[in-house]
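From the methods appendix. Each design record in this collection lists the tokenized structure first, followed by the designed amino acid sequence. Records were kept in a plain field format so they could be parsed without special tools. The example shown here is representative of the layout used throughout.

RECORD:
FOLD TOKENS (615 positions):
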């Protein structure tokens, strides 16, 4: 039993050597147990007790600077009040840390950010003066997934009072311990049934029941509006969003990902893939963790079906980062790993991030500038799925299928034993589908105030016409709108066919002009092109254009139609052709509507997208 503190990964490695007898290794690997730390352990798959070098980062519970997580057996996470009481005490010990409010939540709580810098910056201007890149780390966007908060508190403690102060020599840290502050206080031991700890966990959504990691594009939530303002003000070079997974069992404890090379920030992707990932994975492995890419199984009941490589849209943090050319890393710690293991893995990753950011500031800055000012002539709005050339040797867990007497369906039973699934197929949305040419500018009539305000919140630059102007522009005629049957994220979403037409437009004074040759020009395109899945149109901001508000009575359209046919022989031919459609011919309302739509009385703005394009 002298190897009881070795992790499963280390045991697997040792099993292939002659150092330890294979039968002793087999005994160790056959010992996954149902844990008994958390209230839900007895309904979760078995786990293997983990130990790694990163445990040396922990302070004893009686240490005067132990975090609340360390004080309470590495199983709990502090409340909002206790979190900031502890951080306030730490901030009082140094001039390197400052606490700033990003704004108030709907329930009135401050969303605090800790600014950590060698020069003690307490404002965006002061931080910019030190000339160092900054990483913005947010924990608790889903407040039950709170690993980043406790990891960040430990790291700040070690920067201020321990041996990690040099991390601020070449980089700054912007740390938001709790993003969804109201959801964080809706805390219970019953909130996340699939997750091992902490004992009490916050709620997934905000007090308004909005999912913040579906809100980046539409920015409905007050919390998100504050965060986007912070990004615009503080201008981080790197953005880290810390989550915990749902889904399947596997060996990896820290998985992370970012945009794909097919996206709008290919230079940033190259830096993340070629410089950042190797450095982070090496640091995690040295400390006894098992890092990997983001994991989304195609079929949770059959691992051999392969994995899905995610190409996120701008409603998500990493998709939004791609659109605005802010390199964004989504961390997904494995929910079935114990809380201690996940917190320590996050600490190692954040520390390694500060190191690589400081070392490669020039390369990263160059990549970001390249993406911001590339202005591609065509922009892809939607993607089709394809199998990727490179498969995945997946570090999974053995499982069996059995018929459940409860549901009557087959269910997965993982047994905790590590298993390699070699060369699994990988699918991803990487083939361009709908794409558009890049307009030189968009024009938004001044009455669409909510749309204009959201674009301002994103930081998109705009000007206003000072007088009425006539221009030849392009406009989309929409048709066949399809509304989502159920409400989604507090909105009635819609999709429609779109046909681009040339129009002679009369633009009123106050019309907003958005030049697409700006750093956030690509983001503007994804928000304003109607066929973009995260366009403001598809999120329902323009739904009034799908409502008819003027009508014509049958007693008026009948004589009108007769007059139209009498004066326009071509219209008579078109009507005769339309009558060959039996369904149309048998529908009196459709026949009358046909004439109304071709009359001068018809609403010429009906289903016309009000945002116009300049070539």
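DESIGN:
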């Amino acid at each position: 039993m002298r190897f009881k503190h070795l992790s499963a990964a280390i045991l697997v490695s040792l099993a292939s050597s002659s150092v330890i007898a294979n039968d002793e290794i087999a005994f160790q690997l056959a010992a996954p147990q149902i844990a008994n730390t958390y209230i839900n352990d007895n309904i979760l798959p078995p786990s293997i007790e983990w130990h790694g070098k990163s445990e040396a980062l922990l302070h004893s519970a009686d240490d005067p600077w132990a975090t609340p997580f360390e004080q309470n057996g590495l199983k709990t996470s502090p409340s909002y009040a206790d979190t900031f009481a502890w951080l306030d005490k730490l901030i009082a010990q140094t001039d390197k840390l400052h606490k700033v409010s990003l704004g108030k939540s709907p329930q009135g709580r401050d969303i605090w950010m800790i600014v950590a810098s060698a020069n003690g910056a307490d404002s965006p201007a002061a931080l910019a003066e030190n000339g160092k890149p900054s990483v913005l780390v947010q924990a608790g966007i889903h407040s039950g997934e709170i690993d980043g908060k406790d990891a960040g508190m430990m790291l700040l403690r070690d920067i201020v009072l321990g041996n990690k102060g040099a991390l601020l020599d070449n980089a700054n840290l912007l740390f938001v311990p709790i993003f969804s502050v109201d959801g964080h206080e809706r805390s219970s031991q019953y909130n996340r049934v699939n997750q091992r700890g902490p004992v009490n966990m916050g709620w997934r959504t905000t007090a308004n029941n909005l999912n913040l990691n579906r809100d980046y594009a539409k920015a409905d939530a007050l919390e998100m509006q504050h965060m986007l303002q912070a990004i615009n003000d503080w201008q981080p070079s790197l953005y880290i969003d810390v989550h915990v997974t749902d889904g399947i069992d596997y060996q990896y404890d820290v998985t992370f990902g970012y945009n794909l090379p097919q996206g709008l920030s290919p230079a940033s992707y190259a830096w993340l893939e070629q410089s950042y990932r190797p450095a982070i994975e090496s640091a995690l492995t040295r400390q006894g963790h098992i890092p990997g890419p983001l994991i989304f199984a195609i079929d949770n009941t059959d691992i051999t079906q392969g994995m899905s490589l995610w190409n996120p849209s701008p409603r998500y943090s990493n998709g939004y980062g791609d659109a605005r050319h802010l390199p964004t890393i989504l961390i997904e710690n494995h929910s079935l790993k114990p809380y201690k293991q996940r917190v320590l893995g996050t600490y190692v990753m954040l520390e390694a991030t500060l190191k690589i950011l400081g070392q490669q500031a020039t390369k990263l800055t160059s990549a970001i500038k390249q993406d911001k000012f590339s202005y591609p002539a065509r922009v892809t709005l939607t993607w089709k799925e394809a199998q990727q050339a490179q498969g995945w040797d997946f570090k999974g867990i053995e499982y069996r299928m059995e018929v459940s007497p409860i549901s009557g369906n087959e269910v997965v039973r993982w047994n905790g034993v590590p298993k390699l699934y070699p060369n699994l197929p990988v699918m991803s949305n990487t083939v361009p589908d709908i794409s558009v040419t890049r307009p030189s500018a968009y024009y938004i009539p001044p009455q669409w105030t909510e749309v204009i305000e959201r674009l301002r919140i994103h930081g998109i630059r705009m000007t206003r016409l000072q007088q009425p102007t006539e221009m030849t522009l392009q406009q989309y005629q929409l048709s066949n709108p399809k509304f989502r049957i159920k409400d989604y994220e507090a909105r009635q979403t819609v999709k429609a066919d779109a046909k681009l037409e040339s129009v002679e437009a009369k633009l009123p004074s106050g019309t907003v002009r958005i030049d697409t040759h700006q750093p956030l020009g690509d983001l503007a395109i994804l928000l304003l092109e109607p066929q973009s899945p995260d366009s403001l149109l598809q999120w329902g901001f323009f739904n009034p254009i799908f409502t008819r508000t003027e009508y014509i009575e049958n007693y008026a359209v009948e004589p009108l139609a007769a007059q139209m046919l009498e004066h326009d022989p071509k219209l008579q031919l078109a009507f005769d052709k339309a009558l060959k459609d039996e369904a149309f011919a048998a529908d009196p309302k459709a026949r009358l509507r046909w004439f109304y739509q071709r009359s001068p009385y018809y609403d010429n703005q009906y289903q016309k997208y009000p945002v116009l394009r300049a070539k």
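APPENDIX NOTE: The CA atoms of residues 485 and 541 lie 17 Å apart.
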